Every structure is written in C-alpha cells, then in structure tokens.
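Lab notebook page, bench 4
Experiment: in silico fold of construct C2
Operator: M.H.
Input chain length: 491 residues
Purpose: comparison with the prior construct
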Amino acid sequence: MNSHGYFASAVLALAAILFSAPGAAAQANSDEVQQLKVQVAQLRAVVADLQARMATLERRNGAELEYASYKTVGSGDASELARAGLSLRAGSQESPPAQAAVSSQAAAPAAPPLPAALPGGVTINYYFDGYFENNFNDPTGRVNDLRAYDVLSRIFSISQADLVMARDPDVQAGRRFGARLDLQFGQATETSQGNPANEPRPEIYRNIFQAFGTYVIPAGKGINFDFGKWASSLGIEGNYAKDQINYTRSFFFYFLPFYHAGARLRYDFNSKLGVNYWIVNGTNQSEPTNGFKDELFGLALQPAKTLNWIVNYYNGQEHSDTVAATNCTVPVQPGLCFAPLTPAPKGKLHIFDSYATWNATPKLTLAAEGDYVIQREWANAAPGESSAPDHTGGGAVYAQYQPSARYAFAARSEYLSDRGGMFSNATQALKEATGTYRYNFGDGFSAFLEYRRDWSNQFYFITANPARPSSHQDTAGVGMVWWYGGKQGAW
C-alpha cells in the first residue's frame, strides 16, 4: 500500500472508533454525535481530494514528457502542466474515480506548440517565407531580373525557411556571453550565401546564415565583442521580411554585402551615440580569396527618441590573389589547392553607407538610405593595365502608414547609378517604385500584396524573346510569412 493509502486508512479507522466505541457512544448526546458525523464527512472529502492529488503526482512522475517549456511547475497538477506547455503521455495505472475530471484532461491533452525555449534561456525561433509573383514581361525561364529573393515568376516559391537559436548576454544576471545560430534554406539561400567567385568553398557554409558568439567585455559600460559570421548591416534592409517595410528587397540590398566573417566590436557611450568596428575576411566571404582584412568603422546615432541614424565606412580588397589548381604535391583539404597570381590585383573597395529611420508619428514611419561605392582592380596599374575605378551610387526613400495593428500601407522609391556595371554588369541608371499592402492576421502571420516597377535607361530586362530585352519590368505578387518563437522584436 502506498503512503496516501496508509494515511486514508488511518483516518477512516479513527472515524470508525469514534462511532463504535461503546463508552463514547453511550455518553455522547445527540448533538455531539451529529457533530462527529459532520467531521467524518469532511475528513472523507479531504481524503478523496488527497487521493486524487497523489494519483496525479504519481502519474506525472511515471509519464514521459513529450514537450517541456522548461519552466518549474510547483504543484504538479495536470491543469497547471497544460498551462505551462507540458504534455504527458498517460501511464498504465488506472485513474481513481475521484479524479475523473483531472484524468480526462491529462488523457487527451491539446497538441503542444513548437518549443520556443531551451534550458538556460536559449530561444528557438521558426520562420517560413513563401510567395507567388507574376512578371508581366513573361521572361524566359520565368526569371525576375535583379531581384534578391523574389527570383521567379508564376511559380509557388519558398523564399526561405529558417531556424534561429539565440542566447543573448545578460550582464545584470551575471552572464556576459551569448551565441546565435541562424540556419537558412530556400531560394534566398542560393542568392545570399556566396558562390565560387566569392569564396573557395561556399557549400560548407551555405545554410549557415549567421553563427557567432558574443562576449561583453567588462570595460566602461561594456564592449560587445562578436566572433563568427553575421548578416551585414550595410544598408537599411535585412533578411527577414517580417521586419521590413516592403516585401521585395531593393537594388541596394542585392548589391551591398549580405554577410561577413570575422570579429566586431560595439560600444555605446550613451543612449545617443554608439560606435562599431569590424575586421573581417571580406564581403560575402566566409573563407577569403586573399590575405587582406577588410574593416568597417561605424556610428550609431539617436539624436531624438524617434530618430535613428547609421553612418558606415567600409574599406576592403576583394580581388583574389590565387587561382584554383589541381597539381598540389602535398595533401590538402578538399578545394584548397591553389596557385598564386603574379602579379595579384590589389585595388581597394570603398563603401560609404548611411541610412536613417524617423517615426514621424505613431502611425507614420519615414526612412532614407544613401550609398556610394567605388572599387579599383589595380592599386598601382602596370603598363597596359586598366586602373579606372567603377562607381555605383544612389539611394532609396521609404514611407509606411499603419492605421492599426492589423494593416499597413508602404512605398519605396529607389535610384541606382551603375557606372562600370559593378551591380548589373552593364553601365546604366536603374530606378524602381514599389507599393505594398500588409495585413497582419495575428502575431506571427502576415501577408504582403505588392506591385513593383523596375526600369532603366537601357534595354536590359529579360522578356519572352531574349533577343529583345525591355527597358522596364513590372511585377505583382503576394508574399506570405509565418514566424514563431521566443525571441521578441526584430530578428
């Protein structure tokens, strides 16, 4: 017999003695007998409740946890477990009749949600982004020209599916370190995650969108130090559509670097001024093609609570100093056999990038971005070698009006001058205008309805006849974005 059975038997035996003892029964008057009966009835109710609670605890201890939110549950009651996100698989022990209401709830629990956290404060986040879009040029192969993520027309497309795990530092709690991992799959991965022209072995890092560790150095107010691979903050737009004003990405998002690998520092002097410094392998290079280390110097300004302003200068050298070879005489890692380029081009890359966001009213947001990029192939040109630099410059303006939490209207206008063809492989002036309607079905599910027109001063955009390109490209589409997880705010 278990412990709650012994306790129940002892209480019932005591009640029986009170009723059956001749001396006690003879001396008790009718009021006393009635009072004893009431007390015994109350004891029986308490015992029944204790039996139900003990049975629930035994079943909990013997059950297998299918999913846990990793929160401490105090009472072990099945209803509390369900509220905490815990689901139990019932054991073989039959539930007592006295706990029928509790056992029926435990026997048929609601389907648990996806886990949003792991032990120690690690958040887990899930993301899916899909779209259907029509290109009115009917391009060959249904390919949208100069688009970063919405790359195909008249196809139900998976732009990206992501799993994001993060554990941020918490200095107040005594934890100065953290880490983040973003795994990415889908069309956006092929666009943004490197190619053999950028780095020797892009396939190794293809699905790692971000992976870095963080340590807050105890100096001054704390210096944030990151090491690993992270999404570039050159340019105002980012990877996750849920955090963007428009669904499609701008020309400059496509042109500027997607990611960097190396080390970075950030220090905030106060709420109005912060500084950034990076030293990295290069632009879109998990593994570099030369030994030069690129650098970024940045300012993060907040002149007012409603205004944020970023200013960046990036200095790099993106030209390879080797070529792939197959005649290595010593064992090497796969894909790491090279022959030197003599002489190697050592021309520099300079990126001047600035953008600002202004919350003009609680419902109206305005933003702007300006960029100028210049690159030379040769630092000191040899006779007969061209050293004329390529220039790309321009900017974009944004506006979003959100009358309610349910929906918003947004617009973007952009101009990009591509002198030398660094972005589009053709010297041309590119423009685009985008109108977006966003509807938020709820926290974690949004739909975007968008119309966009791209045009150029050249006949550049693909049509159904590859021999007759068009000077413009019009698209209309719907983007659907789902996300869920423990990380709050922008990802």
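Observations: The radius of gyration is 33 Å. The domain at 122-485 is CATH 2.40.160.10 (Porin).
Next step: discuss at group meeting.
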